[in-house]
Amino acid sequence: MYAVIRAGGKQYRVALGDVVRLENQSDDNGNVEFGDVLAVSAGDGKIGASAGARVLGRVVEQGRAKKILVFHYKRKKQYKRTIGHRQNFTEVKVGDILV
User: Fold this and answer.
1) CA gap 78, 25 in Å, rounded
2) pTM surpassing 0.90?
3) Checking phi first, is residue 95 left (phi over 0); if not, alpha (psi -120 to 50) or beta?
4) Pair 90, 8: CB distance under 8 Å
5) Would you kindly state where each structural domain of the chain is located, as residue ranges?
6) What is the spatial order of strands in the sheet that 88-98 belongs to?
7) Using one digit for the tens of pLDDT, what is the confidence trace for 67-82?
């Protein structure tokens, strides 16, 4: 059984026991609830949209990803600029899919 959820403007396919790295999520005592469920699969290749479905999870870790370098360059103009960026994330372990 798996579900497709929307979190942080992106879509994720999650199953029971999966650990998913998402955009920053606000948690309630380490628990997260996703109410925006786009589709649920009950197995046997059957997928359907389910109104009122929820996905419950537990926050495993909150942190910042590795630094990426953003490099701007204009040739023949002696212009170079380097900027770094670290994205915040929340790791969530999926505990239950309620239909």
Assistant:
1) 42
2) no
3) alpha
4) no
5) 2-98
6) 19-22, 88-98, 54-64, 31-34
7) 999 999 999 999 999 9
